[in-house]
Amino acid sequence: MDTASNIRPSLLITIDTESDDLWAGRPELTFENIRHIPRLQKLFDNYGVRPTYLVSYPVATSEIGGHVLKPIVRDGNAEIGSHMHVWTTPPLVPVTPEDHRYCPLATEIPYELLAEKMANITRVVGELSGKRPVSHRAGRFGFDHIGLRVLQELSYLADTSVTPLMTWVEPSYTGGQRGTDFRSAPFEPYYPSEGGVTRRGSGPLIEVPVSSFLTRPLPNRIANRLARLPRNNNFVRALRWTGFVRHGWLSPGRQTNGRRLVGIARALIALGVPTLNVMFHSSEMAPKTSPSTRTEADVEDSYQQLRVLFEYLVHKVKVRPLTLSEFAASYQRTLTAPHRSL
Ligand SMILES: [Zn+2]
Q: Sign of torsion, CA 63 65 67 70?
């Protein structure tokens, strides 16, 4: 048995808990998908998995949000964090005439406005859960060193906005570019640098990257070699371009299946990554509220994918299920344990 397979990884489920189908760019917000969260929580409870619901401002202040999420908080098997969309979090200062279509990123607004928006969402999410949130994911992964600074000023402990292997750089409304390039980010949790969030630093906030990898199961030897390459290495990109391997999220949906999710999880475990961070949107587990769940059958398929993944991870690998802040606390303890102090 090699050393990597002796590591017992942690399993995190981080869910953007937001309005229906934000991909559609509609001006009005609806919350039908939130009604389906109790079914999802039941699945998690069956496997002893402890999700983190990262809640948007409109959901936190909606009647259905409180109705659904408060009992889940009371049961104590989940954590509530924040998920900040610039265009729906007050103060609402339009960036473009059609922000619901353009979906401005936190990296596109001034520090002062971002700080105000983050303070507002932190307050309403705290009112919802009865506890100040300490975990966060940026809307559309719009996260940079200024976002990091604001989170640390608000005493957040964990962020999960970084997506290794991926870049979100695209044209912006100014004619320039927007979005963060995360291709060189580590797969494993790290303390991001205040000089650039894809680099390691020594701040108090831990970054737990979203889990994704290449979809073709690779022999451990090759997977390990790939892991040692700089993450922006052209070889990895070339593998993707040739179609030999594709990039895959550790997330359920129409483009994947349970076997493929298990393959991605196995590859990450083989690389020695100590956390599996399954990310999706609340709207992706309800019918007709996301592009990946157009029908009831799509929803059932996504549920089945999660069952296959949990059967493997919980029963076979025997992962440690943790919420995001529970992971942050346990990671801190590992680092400060006396035998690791050198
Ligand atoms: Zn979102």
A: negative
